[in-house]
Structures are given as C-alpha cells and as structure tokens.
Design brief:
With 367 residues, the protein is of the alpha/beta class. The protein is built from twelve helices and 13 strands. Helix 8 runs parallel beside helix 9 and helix 11 crosses helix 12.
Length: 367
Amino acid sequence: MYKALRPWLFRAPPETAHKGALVALRALGLLPAGARAKMPRLPVTTLGLALDNPLGLAAGFDKNGCALQGLAALGFGFLEVGTVTPRAQPGNPRPRLFRLPEQRALINRLGFNNDGMDRLAARLRAARPAVPIGVNIGKNRDTPLPRAVDDYRLGFAALAPYADYITVNLSSPNTPGLRALQEPEAARELLGALYEDRSALERRSGRRVPIAVKIAPDFAPEALESLLGVLKEVACDAIIATNTTVARPGVAHLRTAEEQGGLSGAPLNIRAREVISYIFNRLPEIPIIGVGGIVDAEEAWRHLLAGASLLQIYTGLIYEGPGLVRAILTGLGERVHATGHDDFARALSAARRNLSSGEAPNMIKLS
C-alpha cells in the first residue's frame, strides 16, 4: 500500500509530508494494543535494557516526542527522540530537506529545529510507550562553543529522569562548530561533566542512565582513534555510528547533491559499516548502535556482522514505509534461525565467527 501512496506523498515538500506522517502515527497510537499487528520477537539485552528486538528508530524522525505511541506500534524495539536543545529553536531557513529518490537518500540541514527540553520532558512525563526511549541532546545554535557543556548539562538534567538512555550528539553537520566537540579535549570535558551529573542523579534516584555518544562518519583514522581513546577512558556506555555525512558517495553527479547538509540513506551504508567495524575491532567492550543506510534486512544484518549490537533506521522508512520494520525483523529472524541458535546474541556471535574472508562485511579500512 505504501508503495502505491508514495508517489502522491512525494508530490508534497519533504517537511510537509513528514508532518503528515507524524499526524498519521499519532492516530495509529490511539488504536488499542490488541488491534496492532504482532511482530517477530528477537529479544536482546543491551545497556541494561531488555528489548523485544534490536531495531530502533533513529533521532530526528520524531524530534519532539509527538507520535511515540504510534511509532511503538510499528514494532520497534526502542525509540530515540530529539535532537532536543535547552531552548526551542526554529532551525535553519527553508528549504532544508531534500529527497534523492533514485538513491533512496536524503540531504538535510534542519539545524536542530525542536520545541525545547521542557516541552519534551512534559510529554515524556505525561505518556510513554511500552518500549525504551532514548533522548538525543544537543546545544542551541546561538550558544557559544565554550559554553556548550552548559547546554548539554541542562538537557541531561531536564530529560534523564524520563529517559532510558541519553545520547550526546557531537556530530550533526548542521550546527556550526558542533563537530569540534569530537576533538579529544572537548569530548573529555563534556563527557566528564555529564558523567558527574549522571552520578549525582544515581545517588538521588537509584537509577543509572546510560550515556551514548553519536559520532560522525567523516573521520580520518587518526582522528577517530583519538576520540575512541577518550570514549574508552571515560567508559562510554555506547557509541552510535553514524550520523549523516558531508561527503557525497554515489550521488555527487546529481544537482541536488550540491545542497549543503548531511547525507543519509542507502549511499551511506558502506561508510557506516566501515566506521562500525573500525570501532568494534578496537573497542569490542562498548556496544555500538549501528545507523546509516539500512534500507532492508540484508543491510541490517551486515551492520550487525560489522559489529553493531543494536540498529536504528530513519531514511529507509521514508522510502520503504512502515512495513520496513516488519521486513527487517522477519529477515533478521531468518538469519538468526540459519545459524542454528535461537538466542539473538549467540546467533550473531556465531555468524561473526563463521565469516569467510571473502565476505568481509566487517571491514576496517578507513580513509
């Protein structure tokens, strides 16, 4: 059905179509639980969270947490909202979101448009779906970089009480200067402050909120190595790899590719897997949430083989529709069954061990 509707949806500007999708998802969230389709289960425990399956929704789709019940009804194992900033902000001028349909890709320069941390906290306090929720936090555009830590601490204080994990977004290409926070000293200062705040929250409430760090795909190997050293030093709970790319793999010949912003979707899949593999081979003890170019079950499995423990999708939903969730989970279930293991984590470990050198989905080449 979605394939038939997509040409009509794509006649509307991308942001208009996206708002319409959120309205439909809010309506879906009103259906009784018994009326929703059952999804394949692939139970997995990561970050201390018991998930029905390893597939999540990436940040950016529902920045303000307006349609969480409906999104949960699609069958996701977890959802991530945001990026949210301390103060509401409109983001960059329009147009700022561009489709590349033949490549199943998007370019966006939205710029952290969101309602602010207080409104998101109120929504999460009032109603939460029965799946784990991550909250992705960032700094306001007009906050000077030397004061960025203050914005992240404000976001953590306001939202950690309602989050199952917090993601620290250091890697959006659409807020000027933000990626400088991936430099080792800046990252060490920021994460050190947040870990202090997390410890204080744990003493008060007894809850330990995991902190994930979302990184860019555009690192040179030596720069990524330096950041990974910091993440190991501070005992980072998880790494989300990756954000959108400022490179234009496979789309540079298109006129739309000249637009500024981050590229997401199918053209990002190889680079995302390279970064995942690089991290996994150096820090196998830190869980990786793989995101970037997952448009079908095969690509989801490749991300897992490369080293991801969990997955997230966003752009794939735009092109494949809500049925993508079931398609990926069904395909992953078939691949798990083929290993001879019923347990997802054991099946994945066995599949990684059995890789032949010719398959090489767990690439470690970066350039």
